Amino acid sequence: MAVRNLLLSLALFPIAAFGVGIDSVTLKADAEGAAGEVVEVFIPSDLVQHFDIKLDAVKMGKHDFLVEFWAVDTTAGENIRITDFKSSALIANTITAKIALPREWPVGLYRLDVKMDGAAIGSYEYDVAEPEEE
Predict the structure, then answer these.
(1) How many CB atoms lie within 10 A of CB 13?
(2) Which of 1, 63, 72, 113, by CA, is between 20 and 30 Å from 127?
């Protein structure tokens, strides 16, 4: 009987009550100010970088999202906070963020940290690399 009650409780417990986290992150090149083609890594001349950060769950109600961008290990240094991106809107469970530098990006490893209502919900690492020779 206890097992049945536990299963019934879990079935009735809304998915939104579980923790929200990052499901996936899509990197996109810039196309004259708008998100362009999907890329695996950015190159230094990608002055504007676009990100689609898909969350694995939805919590009902209004929420504030903060995406912090960090240079983890780059030619310009380590563990440098670059900028923040704030949003209070989700489209299809996705945070759409955009950041830019007025000069080329230093080559290396970067990280974005996502917070919802001040609580950390996940991180994602990505690279800025020199373009491959053809």
Answers:
(1) 10
(2) 63
Question: 119 vs 114, 116, 125, CA distance in Å?
Answer: 8, 5, 19
What pTM did the predictor assign? Answer: 0.82
**Residue 71: Cβ-neighbour burial (10 angstroms; 0-12, 13-18, 19+):** buried
CA pair distance 71, 108, nearest whole angstrom? 8
What CATH fold (topology level) applies to the domain 20-128?
Immunoglobulin-like (2.60.40)
Nearest C-alpha neighbor of 104 from the set 78, 79, 65, 130: 130
Span 96-117, pLDDT tens digits: 999 999 999 999 999 999 999 9
Q: What is the CA radius of gyration of the chain?
A: 18
Q: Supply the pLDDT for residue 24.
A: 97
Lookup: tokens for 64: 């504030």
Q: Are the CB atoms for 36 and 51 separated by under 8 Å?
A: no
- Retrieve residue 20's tokens: 């929200």
